[in-house]
Fold:
Amino acid sequence: MAEVKWIKIATDIFDDEKILLIESLPDAYAIITVWFKLLCLAGKKNNGGVFLMNDKIPYTDKMLATIFRMNESTVKLALNAFEQFKMIEIVEGIITIPNWNKHQTLDAYERKKERDRLYQEERRAKQRALIEKSSDKSSERTSDVAVSDIDKEDKEKDNNIYVPYKEIITYLNEKTGKKLRWDVKSNQKEIKARFNEGYTLDDFKTVIDKKYHEWGRKPTKEELQRGVKDMRIYLRPKTLFGSNFDVYLNQEQTEKMPAKPPVSRNLNNFDRREYDMDALEEQLLNSN
Structure:
């Protein structure tokens, strides 16, 4: 798998509890440096957070110390701390970073690269097909113009790639019972931005499913009195597909909304009344 040129780092990483605990250790800044170098190496290898040289040889403390240009004792101390805080796991002697793909979403990056590669292949095939139709110089000149037209169309496609707005908004409407329009630019804006980042139709459906199960239930009167907020208003493109899209996509599945108790239509469920038949008979006789 090809190496990537970047990794994602949370801006509040130095407020993380594990990093704060590491800062209290001896050689804290050296240990933190090892952590960042480890993250960069994981991104460079792009192997799902598994540290193997040439996909065969596990990295040792000494190997990492050489690559990081640091003392072996410092690297060993750092790895012990990372393992203690569950920042890494040693699986059959191999160093791994748990949930690497979950936090880095490199799979989306790879999908975008593959989609671009297939698109370029299709584009070149169209060009070759037009050129092969040329049988003389005149037709060759015509085909050159046609190829230029394809280039122009491709640039337009690159700027306006096909995005399944209708499928996404329709799926959201079916889940929520809303009537949002798919052809409104405000609804399309966030969807297109996420597609440009490499996310797929299935990713959008996953986010819709997860947030509907979390937010789709109307709070009871008691819950509203306790200050529980009605989150159904946030089941909209602006919120679901905005800057937190990746967080929603990778969050753990919450429990499904509790089912509403069925309304019984059985008349036998009503409490029976007890009547004094003698008293009723006497009352009827006296009424005459």
About this structure: The two ends are 99 Å apart (CA to CA).
